[in-house]
Fold these 4 entries.
Entry 1:
Amino acid sequence: MSLETDLHTRFNALLQQHRGIVLKVAASYCWNPDDRAELAQDITVQLWRAFPGYDAGRRFSTWMYRIALNVAISDLRGRNRAPQDPLPLEAVADSIADPLARDPAHAQQVAALHASSPTCRRWNAP
């Protein structure tokens, strides 16, 4: 068995034994199931990259938890810094517009108030 195959086998065995850590950390940092799955995958990739440097004299679960937390925190910071795509005004204009402004009866009442007020007549005069 080659060294890389042995490394891969050991990593998979330890990952399966302690996979709950990855899932718990991902669930703690992501509410959306798709984001949670992506974060769990990112954590696993980072664990694999760091595995050759793992000191077998230390507890694997502690090492794994530390890496999982660091990846989750970095992911959270990245999401907070990422610019949010603003919605076009046309897409939200109806939801933020005054619903009474579209009501013809309301428009007539406003026009009548403006016509009866001396202050409004002065501002509306040509």
Entry 2:
Amino acid sequence: MNFIFYGFLLSLFGGFEISKVNIGPLISIGAYFLIQKGVLSLDRDNPFFKKVPTLLYVLMGLSGLSFVLSLVDTGFGGLVGIVAFIIDIVVIYNVIKGIQLYSEKLIDKNQPKKLFKRWRMGYILIGILVVLSIVMVIAAIASVSWTTMYDFALALQASGGNQAMIESIVADYMVALQSVIIIVVVWAFTAFALFISILVFKILFLVSMYKIQAEYQVYLANPTPVETPTQIQ
């Protein structure tokens, strides 16, 4: 169980870069390896765990492919990432459901349910962020005429990257682009709030997983039911 916890913990650093090289996929490979090691060290007859090993091999392969594609910049990395993201959801769902079968062996039998709820809430917030971003983009495009946007883009292109010219162009189009600026500011604040909320639920998820693996270690050391002070009273 502790390998699963360390795998989840390692996955938190998936966006790490060294000298502008994205090593996130390599970190993901390590995380998936630890999760697989943890799953295989538990009950192999667990109906949920049975679905996981093969998918984890696929995820490791996709992560390796994503790393290679990020080096050569072919443009297919995004597609591979989307496929891996979907499979990752399926894998983690089955891992959590498999962990829930160990509830009776834990002191806090509700902890696996908390684990699932916190994981689910994190992805609900991610979904809200994606939908909100799409709506904001559509709203920004709809708030300005195509002619204005085209002229603005041409003016920026003609500036040749000159900072003074860019500032002058932005100032000239400030009134026309005011609605877009407001939309962008609203989106930025909302996205930041959602990002913080997602991070909080990820941390709470890890806290639940840590408690589960710690209590399971207690069970392994003492397989008899552990009574809490409340139960003794």
Entry 3:
Amino acid sequence: MQTFKNVRPVQILLVEDNPGDVRLTIEALKEAKVLNQLTVVKDGIEALSLLRRQGQYARAARPDLILLDLNLPKKDGREVLAEIKADDNLKHIPVVILTTSQDEQDVLKSYNLHANCYITKPVDLDQFITVVKSIEDFWLGIVVLPKKNGKGNVV
């Protein structure tokens, strides 16, 4: 794979309430070749507050990529996805569903809500790390994403 030099760290938002999955994702991202800044939130309401830069997140960087679990407390990942894709300021951010659900209805609903991809979390530790690295390689090393202005909005 070709390595690209980033002018700034790539901003990744991980929306995940399982501490074990958070740790595994952090480990996998540490091993990646792309400079990244990971922000972790544990529920859907907190994710939307960060994305909308509300309250304590008024100065938060807009993420370049969102890794979203579906089964979240307070506001479920499906609702979060629907709100992201309905918001003109957020809909251009790629959203990767990273969840334990293998339910065909969850897959279909996620794509109907314009998720950029749907990945079932592997149970095996090594496979999980491989999946996270592959996500980062593809979305942050191969894909060309829209440019953002100084405020983090797509230009």
Entry 4:
Amino acid sequence: MKQFRHKTGVTSLAVSSFIIALATTGSTQALAHDRTSTGALEQQIKQLESQLKAIRDELNQVKSKAAQDEQEIKKVKEEIVLEDQEIKKVEEKVVELEEFEHKHHNISHRLFFRGGYAHNLQERNGASLQSNVVPIGAQDAGGNDGWYVGAGFDFSLTKDVWGFLPNTEIFAELMFEYKRFGHSQGNALANAPSQLAGGAFNPRSVTISQFTLSAAPKIKFMEGSNFRPWIIPAGLSMHVVSPATESVTYVANPGIMFGAGADYRIWKNFYLGVDARYHEVFGKFDGVNISGLTAGGYLGIGF
């Protein structure tokens, strides 16, 4: 019995020792495993910190680059603003130059052709018409009424009266016209020499005509408009009559011309207009008074 109990105690002691040994071995292994896991975790944390630092550095570089780009963009915008201002100044200068060119250099001129009614204040007389020198023959005075044709040239001088009056243009007009007052049965001097005695019975027809050359300032209003009224305050005119006067001369009578009219631009640089002009020669020259007036229309071509 004692021997059995002794064997049982020895067995229990052996089992206990084995269990303690196993426990001690397991604790050591667990502790070693925990230490290994902690080291790996610390290593991962260090790697994460290193990666985070790299990301932070890269982000700072991006921010710095963005700030530099923003400065560059701001600088470019400022340069664009300056360039826009320069362009605006240049455009304003171009507009000023164009206005100056329009006012002082790009000036329109005009060629015009006239025609219409002509009237003399007094019937025409003269050497071969109704003559006081040779009062024989038909003695048929010339008529008062007739027609005229002519042409002229307008040269534009200024579009604003040299800065004193805007939208008012001044032209220098040079014009000529031919007037015809019909035919008259002349006196003896109008016949052939062999028929002087029979002038009253065999008269010769005489054409009554007049040539006028004039130069005058023409003031046109409403510059830039299609409709342009105008006046001629006073101009110089020279008149040559046919047939000859009592002194048997084709006298060139000087006089003053006054005029008024208006025209309308019908298409591009083509104009239609009407005008009336009065010529005053202040009395008679060699027995002939050729003061009179004209009224009619004209076609103008600008260039």
